Amino acid sequence: MAVVNPQRPRDAEEARRLPPGQYLTRKFPVLTYGETPSFDPATWDFRLWGLVEEEVRWSYEEFMRLPTVEVVSDFHCVTRWSRLNNRWEGVSVREVMRHVRLRPEARYAMIHCDGGYTTNLALEVLLDDDVLLAYKHDGEWLTPEHGYPLRLVVPKRYAWKSAKWVRSIELMAENRPGFWEQHGYHMDGDPWKEERYSEPPYR
């Protein structure tokens, strides 16, 4: 795990962008539960499934041909560090969702990842215009430890929602808890509201 060196904000603008209880770092710490999965582009795929009219699947080659976007956003970890001005490159979630027809009852999503990790999001959060499936960070390919080949980035939520090694998005009618949410983390995780933890039954 990387060491975090707290930094003082350079100016009032940086200070304003820190949510309550957060401190600034210029580094990009690695926080992971479990082992870093292996990646084979020949067998890797990405799926949209669940409450859709027809499941959609992309191979790695097909996914990498989807239109690319770049998003600059801040990144807030529930362990209290924040890193500002991250430049992400990848595919907008709105773009991949254009390829499916949602059933009317779809309101939530479960993000499924290699290694068994999951996290839940309200569909309206997932479809925000700054949410993307990233494969580059600050002009470089993501390292495996940071989620290569594909990481979900949800800037307006704590970073455990920005799941690494994403393989599929399941559309759901009910809001089920993911991995950390089952262990007491908040179901929504808004850093500006300090939604770090929930009380049972974790809703």
Explain what this protein looks like in three dimensions.
The chain is mainly beta and 203 residues long. It has a domain at 38-68 and 88-193: Sulfite Oxidase, Chain A, domain 2 (Alpha-Beta Complex), CATH 3.90.420.10. 11% of the residues lie in helices and 30% in strands. The strands form 2 sheets. Strands 1, 4, 5, 8, 9 and 10 form a 6-stranded mixed β-sheet that branches. It has a 5-stranded mixed β-sheet with strand order 3-2-11-6-7. The longest helix is centred in the N-terminal third of the chain and has 5 residues, at 12-16. It is globular, with a radius of gyration of 17 Å. 29% of the residues are buried. The model has no long low-confidence stretch (mean pLDDT 93).
Structural class: mainly beta
User: What percent strand?
Assistant: 25-35%
Low-confidence stretches: none
Distance between the termini: 30 Å
CATH class of the domain at 38-68 and 88-193: Alpha Beta
Elements, N to C (H/E):
HEEEHEEHEEHEEEEH
How is the quaternary structure best described?
A: single chain
User: Fraction of residues in helices?
Assistant: 10-25%
Q: What CATH architecture of the domain at 38-68 and 88-193 would you give? A: Alpha-Beta Complex
- Quote the average pLDDT: 93
